Amino acid sequence: MSSPPRDSERLRRKRGSIPSMEALGDDSLKDQSLSIVVVGASGDLASKKTFPALFGLFRRDLLPKDVAIIGYARTDMDDEKFHKKALAHIDTKKYPEESKKFTKILSYIHGPYDKDEGYQKLEAHIDEIENKRPDNEPRNRLFYLAVPPTVFADAAAGLKRNCYSRKGRNRIIIEKPFGKDLETCRELLSSLKGEWSEDETYRIDHYLGKEMVKNLLVLRFGNIVLDATLNKNNVSNVQITFKESFGTEGRGGYFDEFGIIRDVCQNHLLQTLSVLAMERPVSFAAEDIRDEKVKVLRCIPPIKAEDCLLGQYVAADGKPGYKDDDTVPDDSNTPTYAGLALFINNPRWEGVPFIMKAGKALNESKVEIRVQFKDVTSGIFTDIARNELVMRIQPDEVIYMKLNSKLPGFETKAIPVELNLTYKDRFTDVDIPTAYEALIHDAIKGDRSNFVRDDELDVAWKIFTPLLHWIDGKGPGPKPQPEAYPYGARGPKDSAAFSAKYGYKRPDDDYTWPTTSVQANL
Ligand code: BG6
Questions:
Q1: Topology adopted by domain 208-434+453-502
Q2: Which residue numbers delimit the Glucose-6-phosphate dehydrogenase C-terminal domain (predicted)?
Q3: How far is the CA of 242 from the centre of ligand 1 (A)?
Q4: Residues 6+ positions from 69 with CB-CB distance below 8 Å
């Protein structure tokens, strides 16, 4: 007798079908041989994110059967040292066999980023690998740029001149920062476009690879009840909150040039907002989805200074303040916290504030979307809690809807309760892919829907550039000074008043989630 299907298998079989991307166009490289080149292979991003994601795909058997991964960077190291670096953030104890096999497909070449000779050496190495494959195999190549922005243009051009495959398909993956404002972003895009077509370019915003963000499309458009209620008639305000319980330790020099708005709001949180707020796309095809995202972003006017609250953390409880970092100038006004209110001028959302809050060195690490509905029309109830739909992106994926229900017993008293979908309880044996695994997998399949198109970036920068220029002292009036908050606080002291200004009502203090039991007081 065969054993019953596991939870994940059962769900997969029953799942409502979404036309797969393969059915929409055969761009997948999965069933052909592939050379993956990681440029910047000795750096932090590669070791913390790229190699663990490639390993994750490898152990799940989601890389092509015939695949080679070639690291390229300036550091001179032998294969053994490179393997150590590539495995540094992989749990080799949990996966001893798989990690051993993984190193067999890894090799490394060192060379400069700004000279052809390095890329020519790289090309010879890739060629040698590809020459061992059958003659009729296409020579597909995926280049992953895990390098700082100062090197983007040189690396993209060097690869195009020297390592571009004429006998297969080429894709290049790049990651933020895409400039520092509208103008620098346009410069960067046009220098890259000179070499790589839009179709070949995959711009990562790793928030688009997170499971809960990917779920937004299904939640919104697969549920009449949600799609019908998410609009200005019912929603009071939407909050998108990003909190980290650690500061910029060790990254102060980099961070000071960017600040929290460029680091997180203009990209990760705005991308999340656009998927949450966009209209229903014609299909799940990448261009249909991205068209809708651009459309909704174009309805957002530039953020005004008065719709912004800035903060910067200072030392507390033995933890260093932002400016205690030697690489941060003493007079830095770079925000490590920002509260922003955005408005979408379209028929669905007109007048509904979208409050973005992002901060480093706060009281906890959490990212969530909170849709707060309007008050019930007064009359029969006094003081009844508002409905809320909360979608927690991390640390654990959870969706819960706060409703009012009668407290069981003789009296008629309403209390807030939750409809609760906690992923780890509901999907017990599902191993959720990391954002980078999901996105590299998409890039191999040729599914661009979760990558950022050039016009999305342009419109995203238009929303933020005037505000950023004002903070940088390039706008009219003096530079704003962020409000100090202690390391480990909930934010600057004005942060609660900031949300309240846009209509957010904090639940009663005695409400906590998850609530396991309520004193029924029968
Ligand atoms: C990065 C930012 O893009 O995203 C970091 O540069 C931030 O400052 C990080 O910590 C957050 O990503 P995640 O996946 O940890 O939420």
A1: Dihydrodipicolinate Reductase; domain 2 (3.30.360)
A2: 217-504
A3: 10
A4: 36, 37, 38, 54, 105, 106, 107
Which are the contacts of 521, defined by CB distance < 8 A and separation ≥ 6?
Answer: 407, 409
**Could you tell me the CATH superfamily of domain 25-175?**
NAD(P)-binding Rossmann-like Domain (3.40.50.720)
pLDDT at site 517? 61
User: Atom 8 of ligand 1 has which residue's CA nearest to it?
Assistant: 263
- Which residues are catalytically annotated? 268
Report DSSP state, residue 319: B
Please write the tens of the pLDDT for every residue from 264-283.
Answer: 999 999 999 999 999 999 99
Which residues, given as ranges, of the chain have pLDDT below 70? 1-26, 509-522
* Spatial separation of the C-alpha atoms in residues 460 and 63, rounded to whole Å: 33
| Residue whose tokens read 């390229």 | 72
Q: What is the pTM of this model?
A: 0.93
Radius of gyration for the alpha carbons in the chain, expressed in angstroms and rounded: 25
The CB of 130 under 6 Å from ligand 1? The reply is: no
Report the residue among 204, 262, 264, 334 best suited for mutation to probe ligand 1: largest number of ligand atoms under 8 A from its CB.
264
Q: Where in the chain is the domain with CATH 3.30.360.10?
A: 208-434+453-502
